[in-house]
Amino acid sequence: MKTVFNLATIFFLAFFLQSCNLLSAAGISSQGQPTKEVQSNLTSTTANSTVNVDHSQWDKLLKKYVNSDGLVDYKGFKKDQAKLNDYLKMLSEKEPTNNWSVQELLAYYMNLYNAATVKLIVENYPLKSIKDIDGAWTKGRVAIGNKELSLGGIENGILRKMNEPRIHFAINCASISCPKLLNEAYTASKINEQLDRATKEFINSNENDISPNSPKISSIFDWYAKDFEVNGKRDVIGYINKYSKTKINQGVALTYKNYDWNLNEQK
Known about the structure:
Layout (H helix, E strand, L loop, with lengths): L1 H24 L30 H10 L8 H6 L1 H13 L8 H23 L17 E3 L2 E3 L1 H8 L32 H13 L12 E2 L2 H4 L5 E2 L2 E2 L1 H8 L11 E2 L11
Parallel strand pairs: 3-6
Antiparallel strand pairs: 1-2, 4-5
Helix pairs in contact: 4-5, 5-6
């Protein structure tokens, strides 16, 4: 009986560990990184955190290599790869804790995601699409302390848990149909205004064909539909209408545009 019990225990542990590995590979695991939920309306402030992270190095790179349309000069980034690596090294060494404010955490994780994505492209450049890279979102490649997180882990295991759906318009997947890469770093002091800007610009961009009765919208609103709530209930149309210049009538059928995964590169 004892032998049977030991074998059962071994099989259970093996299954558990395999399941954990699969979750991590699927981009779900946060590996224990601290998160905080945005409560009601997000405000921009640096006054409520034990740490204020300096993102100026990333800000300079973005201003130098990203244009107003969000298109990226990856050749330029490749020449300045040492500075990009230095910024990511600084983020890795400055591990977030629960003493950080929600504003600092949001800015840290969004900048980390975007900078790590640029690095991924630069390391594999030239290429046509991020989808040409094996395990682009599932492989652990983003260092925080002694942990290696996947891009999917940062998005799904951390940012989506912070109760701030505007993150979907702030993180960039290096593709034409993605919300554009903002040419400035996210900071706690401007976080609410920056997220509002990113959301309004994307919703009113050519990535959505918005009309009252026959809207054709980005697939982002399909993939992450449950994140878009109004008054505590899932409401994609209501959420879009908060930011859209043209309002969609409630109850109409939504259709979704094909996603262009070609690289968001300056020509």
